[in-house]
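Collaborator request, handled under Task 6.
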Amino acid sequence: MFKLSEIKELIKLVDGTSVHELEIENEGARLLIRKPGKTEVVNVQAAPIPTYTQAYQAPAGAIQPAAAPAAEAPQASARDNYHAIVSPMVGTFYRASSPDKAPFVNVGDRINDKSIVCILEAMKLMNELEAEVRGEIVEILVENGQLVEYGQPLFLVKPE
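Structure tokens returned to the collaborator:
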């Protein structure tokens, strides 16, 4: 279930962004926030959470990340061999621990399963995201400061 303080904080977060709808499931409860509309909390049986252990395949109708310039973007057929590091939550994506610090990772960097690749801010909590895969960062799919969705690919990694 959601606490009232959490719901209020999420409403403020959505209200201050360009996001028009936010849906979160937690322990069988679902929270749906729509702008300009109303907020509803419904108890439902949670659906299985998808896992991304293979190359990422976006669901039909999903918003695709903006393509990097042609010189930097990997070939589409090569993407099938890459591992996608996905967002485990809705939040704001940050490449560095603060604006004056260097990014955690850049394209071409080698990472291991414990490497911190970014910070995701949710409800004013900063959550470090570990890579959970060994390999080389081949593409960064989101911009610094961008709001990301649950399950959204953030990085493509050429696994070792």
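The cover message to the collaborator said: "The chain has two helices and eleven strands. The domain at 76-159 is CATH 2.40.50.100 (OB fold (Dihydrolipoamide Acetyltransferase, E2P)). Please let us know whether this matches your experimental observations."
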